[in-house]
């Protein structure tokens, strides 16, 4: 199963694709969709087209998106929420199920600590996906979101097997 992780952002939307084979995870690809300066509608369109291209190129089976945290800047939070809407829309339009995870849940799953720093998350992504390289923190975060979703799917599958036994 291929899982697409998406780290929403209006300027930089990180994405990462991993392959889940039983309990093993393998890196497929990662990157960032960058928008140019311009009005909000044009930037959202760039994000949507870019994410659709990633989905078409990698054919994931499922997707996961980080939930938006509310910060002190209400306008910034609203704009991030609109980018997050694109991150939910593109995979849904492609027929993918989309998981949503709070930032602390992603960190707890990947690092073991809900308040881990970016460096710790990046280190553990490299540990869990040997040989992976990423150009930005946004792509690393997207891979962490994909790992989180994969681990949650694996946990659900184990619970189903245990119940049927």
From TrEMBL:
Gene Ontology biological-process entries: DNA recombination; DNA repair; SOS response
Binding site for Mg(2+) 2: 66
Cellular localization per UniProt: Cytoplasm
A GO term for molecular function: magnesium ion binding
Annotated keywords: Cytoplasm, DNA damage, DNA recombination, DNA repair, DNA-binding, Endonuclease, Hydrolase, Magnesium, Metal-binding, Nuclease
Cofactor(s) needed by this chain: Mg(2+)
InterPro entries attached to this UniProt entry: RNaseH-like_sf, RNaseH_sf, X-over_junc_endoDNase_Mg_BS, X-over_junc_endoDNase_RuvC
Group of enzyme by EC: hydrolase
Any one GO CC term of the record: Holliday junction resolvase complex
Name of a matching Pfam family: RuvC
Residue positions of the active site: 7, 66, 138
Residues bound to Mg(2+) 1: 7, 138
Self-association and partners: Homodimer which binds Holliday junction (HJ) DNA. The HJ becomes 2-fold symmetrical on binding to RuvC with unstacked arms; it has a different conformation from HJ DNA in complex with RuvA. In the full resolvosome a probable DNA-RuvA(4)-RuvB(12)-RuvC(2) complex forms which resolves the HJ.
Function noted in UniProt: The RuvA-RuvB-RuvC complex processes Holliday junction (HJ) DNA during genetic recombination and DNA repair. Endonuclease that resolves HJ intermediates. Cleaves cruciform DNA by making single-stranded nicks across the HJ at symmetrical positions within the homologous arms, yielding a 5'-phosphate and a 3'-hydroxyl group; requires a central core of homology in the junction. The consensus cleavage sequence is 5'-(A/T)TT(C/G)-3'. Cleavage occurs on the 3'-side of the TT dinucleotide at the point of strand exchange.
Family listed: Belongs to the RuvC family.
Protein name from the UniProt record: Crossover junction endodeoxyribonuclease RuvC
Organism name: Paracoccus lichenicola
Gene that produces this protein: ruvC
């Amino acid at each position: 199963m291929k899982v697409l992780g998406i780290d929403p952002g209006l300027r930089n939307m990180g994405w990462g694709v991993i392959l889940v084979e039983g309990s093993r995870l393998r890196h497929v690809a990662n990157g960032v969709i960058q928008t140019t300066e311009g009005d909000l509608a044009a930037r959202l369109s760039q994000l949507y087209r870019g994410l659709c291209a990633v989905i078409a190129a990698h054919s994931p089976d499922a997707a996961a998106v980080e939930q938006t945290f509310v910060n002190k800047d209400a306008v910034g939070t609203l704009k991030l929420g609109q980018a997050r809407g694109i991150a939910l829309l593109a995979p849904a339009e492609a027929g993918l199920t989309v998981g949503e995870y709070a930032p602390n849940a992603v960190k707890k799953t990947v690092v073991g600590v809900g308040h881990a720093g970016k460096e710790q998350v990046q280190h553990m992504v490299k540990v869990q996906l040997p040989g992976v390289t990423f150009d930005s923190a946004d792509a690393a975060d997207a891979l962490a979101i994909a790992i989180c979703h994969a681990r949650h799917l694996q946990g659900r599958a184990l619970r189903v097997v245990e119940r049927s036994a």
